[in-house]
Amino acid sequence: MAESAKALETSTRILDAAEKLFVEHGFHATSMRLITQAAGVNIAAVNYYFGSKDGLFKAVFERRAEPFSQLMLSHLDEAERASPAPGALQIVHAFINAALQMGNEPDLGGQLFVKLLARTFVEPHPALKESMPRRYGEVSRRYIAALGKAMPHLSELELHWRFHFLSSALFNAFAGNNVLRLFMAQPIVNARDPEMIARMLLPFVVAGLNAPAAG
Question: Is 51 helix (H, G, I), strand (E, B) or coil?
């Protein structure tokens, strides 16, 4: 029993250290040496628990992915229980609230996992090629289906494009990427305030979703 508790503590310490480093540096720039130093273990321990750096990255992602996908679905379920035909506002609200809840609960990964997701979209890794669709396929299908009912004037292609823009805007915004810093000396936007991000993002995204079809 003590041995299994020690193994869990060691593997969790490795996962926590790797998660922070992958967010900060990205997969390729994060060396095994950085990970082992941060976790206080040797490379043999990483290989024992995860097989390789690729295996570790996949494990970092997968321990957070299932709780997050369930959050996404539960918030959509709640919106659909409240109204048999929720509009774009209610659907996007469910989407954003799931990200907010994830970001506010460190045990679920908090802001670190939201940032890791955003980074993964920019720097996709082959190790996630199968697990991403498996973890988020149902989430995507459910949200796209709900949006399709709310916006029947859109073709399937345009509906998928708008869900793509919704997802991209949300995860980039919640990752805390203040792009205005590249163009302005003193931007007034606080890109690290999740509540403010949610409040400003909601009407912007809903307006785009409800726009007339591109044709």
Answer: coil
Provide the greatest CA pair distance for the chain: 64
Specify whether domain 1-51 bears CATH 1.10.10.60. Answer: yes
Q: What is the pTM of this model?
A: 0.83
The amino acid present at 42, given as its one-letter code, is N
Q: How many CA atoms lie within 13 A of 158 on its CB side?
A: 13
Fold of 62-210: Tetracycline Repressor; domain 2 (1.10.357)
- Provide the token pair at 68: 């997050």
Output the CA angle 67-8-175, nearest 5 degrees.
40
CA contacts within 13 A on the Cβ side of 199:
8
Contact between 79 and 91 under an 8 Å Cβ cutoff? The reply is yes
Statement: residue 66 has pLDDT above 90 = no
Q: What is the pLDDT of residue 15?
A: 95
Query: Which runs of E-coded beta strand occur in the chain?
Result: none
CB neighbours (10 Å) of residue 17?
22
